[in-house]
Specification:
The chain is an alpha/beta fold. Helix content is 40%, strand content 20%. Strand 13 and strand 14 (434-444) form a beta hairpin. It is globular and about 100 Å long.
Length: 757
Amino acid sequence: MAVRIGQMLLEKGVISEDDLAQAERIQRVGDESLKVEAGEKLGSIVVKMGRATATDVIRALCEQKRIDDYILVGTYLVSPSLVAQIPLEIAKKFSILPLVRIGHDSMEALVGSDRAHMPDETKEIENLLGIKIEWLHVIEKNLAKVIERVYAKMADRGVRSVRIGEVLAREGLVTAEEVEWALKLARRTNKKLGRVLVDENLVSEAKFYDVLSRHKHLPLGKAAEIMAQKEAGGVAGKLSRNFAVYNEVVPFRIEDSKLFVAVSDAETDLAELKKIYHCKETVVSIVTMSDMLALLKAFYGLEDDEARSKGFEIQSDGDEVEVLAEVSEADTEAAVSGEQLAKMRQQFERIFHNLLHEAIKRRASDIHVENYENFVVVRLRIDGLLYDARTLNIDKTNVIGVVNVIKVLSEMNIAERRVPQGGRFKKRTANGEVYDFRVQVQPTLFGENVVIRLLNQSVSFAPLSDLGFSKTHLKRYTKICENPSGLILITGPTGSGKTTTLYSTLDHLRKDTTKKIVTIEDPIEYSLPRIQQSQSHDLIGYTFAAATRSFLRQDPDVALIGEIRDEETAHETIKMSQTGHLVFSTLHTNTSASAASRMFVLGIEPELLASELLVVMAQRLARKVCPDCKSAYDPKEEIVKMFYPEGAPGDMKFYRGTGCNKCEGLGHLGRVALAEFWYIDQGSRLLISKRADEDTILNETMGVSLFPILSDALEKVRDGIVDIAGLPTVLPMVSLGPIARIMHDKGLLASGRKVEA
């Protein structure tokens, strides 16, 4: 365990290799100065060494043990279940903070404290909890105030909500993270936790109310049974419509001075009903929101529009995603009968459709289904980051069925699980949007993993002006695209937005109907009108290079070569540019300056490249700060130092998103391009001809013809578009140190005051 925790802290960048080696040595022999005995747990040692915080270690423990039963309060990971079991008086008496429970099977808990505890104190706390505890030293000057603050914040969350959330989490219906997110949304929207959980498809309505009825010890009623009672209509009619609809209560029977009432909220105050009906007691049955809607419609004539205004979900047949492509059974080699296939689809297709529905709703670009030894993880890539899916419960018992559904839809061989397979299918939503889904299935040690790319075919491309380029560079770039010939390169890693930039550029160029545009792509992601697009097929010899040669006989004006990935394609691309065509292509390099050396490696002569190259753009995609919850803050000093070697300007303000309903609590909404432009002027051509290395190119051209991506990124930070804390996950950090220094020396770093382009 110790080595694993240490390795995880090392991989996260919390500690260095030297720190890990020192901690392991102390673990073996102890250290009197740190008051560490031999054999102490590694996490505790690195905390006492001052190399990590208690929170860092707890996060690693949670990840190691796959625990999600915690809530982040301040800088501490607090276990709601332990807070509920340890009264504030006890926490203050023993100076303890109930942190994350570890080892659910062995019923142990992690408890933080700022002092050592005697065995009898430990025993008293364990007797209180009925479980064993493990101590972790917490570095905190005034832990007593922290404890009071933590308990106060937990109380502010609403004890009732936290408790039902805990029950749902313990039964495996939701995770603690989902409960925390739903609680935040409930407070912002003034809704009950249960309504948020159901509306957001985190848990089914039936399962939520089943848990709630057992938790509150209330019978679970049914609308059909209530409406079938003869006196129900008369009893309900004595209550005013406004009162019933506003409070969501339906009285339906009177018996022996007892009023029987159906409610959808177990905490509804029914004292007023005793006065209205002159009853001594109310007998409550809890009903689902759907059943309450049915009762209010039946007894009080509630209309759909009014129901929607109160937050009821009005279901329609068009809410589901509909399949466009029919599944072909003939193409699969598996010995699966039609009856078995139909049964399989009926059982698992609904789970998969719910996943697609959530992915589309949450703006996901990719879906990841990951198989591990004892569990399955389903994640969505949103704005470049992966987040756990909420709406379904795929586990080891059903993952094979779900994967088979995906493979059948994608026309793959469901019997083959030893080699990777690829496929695609289409779906459309109720509002008519058509999505193309690209599927890749990869065999792994514990089963098949699936990645699905979502492409909305119904949206038009954003114009170049909406991609986030500065006005100066946009004007210069579009002017260069008017050249009759030459080579324009877009560089960056996979997922950096190269395709979007190229498609937006071609969409701009196709408006000139006097020009013919051709492309060779792998794959064709979007269909563009008035552009001749081709799909490469390496197996039959229709490669990028072969397609480029054939383009010369198609009399094009503009050509897009999807990627220069080999020497032959590089030569054919240059040849096409030389023969009087404007050519666009991509390279997988980190910076624009390194594009030249990459072309040299592919066998292109420096003089030839210098004569044809017009501009090289390197780009990345950064998460945009959500405008609805944007607020100023002070980022960590080490982050600022990465980009401002001598410190940020005094009037510089930094912004981040705090999380709101619009961005689903993420703090970011959409992405924006960070671009680096290298305009090939006469000086740049001379450098290319001399095979100048990247450092020489940077020193000679920066601020003259090369405008680094760091400059664009910091301008967007200054303007409140991007959070500086997110840049290290986006930019090529290896080269940024020297670039930041050169920019500082040349006075190119963004100032605190906004400068109009």
